[in-house]
Amino acid sequence: MNDASEYTPPKVWVWNKPSGGRFANINRPVAGATQDKELPVGRHPLQLYSLGTPNGVKVTVMLEELLALGHTGAEYDAWLIRINEGDQFGSGFVAVNPNSKIPALLDRSGPKPIRVFETGAIEQVELEVPQGGEMRYFRTTKIPMRLDGEGITHVITIGEDVTEWRAIQLQIMQSEKLAAIGQLAAGIMHEINNPLATIGACVAAMDGRIGELGAQQAIPLQEYLEIIEKEVHRCTSIVDGLLDFSRPKGKRKAAVSINTVVEDALFLFKHHERYKQYVVETSLTEGLAAVYGNAEQLIQMLMALMLNALDAMEPGGRLTLRTAATRWRSDEVVVEVEDTGQGIPSSVRPRIFEPFFTTKPTGRGTGLGLSICYGIVEEHRGRIEVDSQSGGGSVFRVVLPTMAPGADA
Length: 409
What we know:
Radius of gyration: 34 Å
Structural class: alpha+beta
CATH topology of the largest domain: Heat Shock Protein 90
Shape: elongated
CATH class of the largest domain: Alpha Beta
Strand content: 15-25%
Number of helices: 9
CATH architecture of the largest domain: 2-Layer Sandwich
């Protein structure tokens, strides 16, 4: 073929023959655009170009049902395509749907518009929907289908509530993150312990020789030594707490009544200076199976949760402790510590078990209490969960496996 005979198809194909009737422009065997006409675009994620045909109605009903369920990602603008006037052969419509069939659906929620009915790709979108004062998560899956031939004929849309699945995934990620932090912290803390011990020994030696000085020099020096010693002890307690979190001590375990653990923890808690400023209630279910654990560690865990609850409440607040068998498994028991405090904002909730993370004012707490609780629960092969709403209090839920009947302690 020489240059003179080369053919370049036009961008817009023009029908030069007389019309074949009212609906000729619908039935002609035409491929490509016959007119240069862009499609209108609204402000919503989805743009639907359709007419009152059965498939167009199906898509509209599907989107309206999704919106009724709270799926804001299904918001759409609908535009009329008048097939008797040849709108389906406009350059804009052909770009969206090259076979010029209605309806056409364009997803503009991302950086690049997606032709939903033509790509053949499965699309997934996750949405956040506030319900009943809490955030629920929904996943919308769009699956283009082919009934006959290669063309996409319709789309199946599946809506799923993935709130619980998402929470489990976050727990897994949190466990892996904390495990990595624990391994790193264990090595660092052992290195910090050595200079702390040296400083403490030097303070003790200087304190033993302070009597050799005169009173005028000894008094201020004694004050400085006391400050140094106090801060060394504080650093040592932080290091010990972090080591407890990163490497549980593996204390001896035996059959333990979870109700007895709660009662023993409350007995110690009653001697706390702030105990009388709050209302403390218990609801303990009798006849619960024993757990295989270390009572001392479990008491330590409950004490930390109760003190954390007091820090979250104003005087007069209510602290409630409950024990029960779990509703979904017969081989687990649950301990709940509920407060009527300010709650935990959803933005910081995923971080509350991280070492040194705290929402308390500077100087109150080290940020290790919940981390140590997490480590103790993990060592007992349990799990710790939290339900909280900002301004609506918090419930910390510790789930522990029970001993099998007849098992040796």
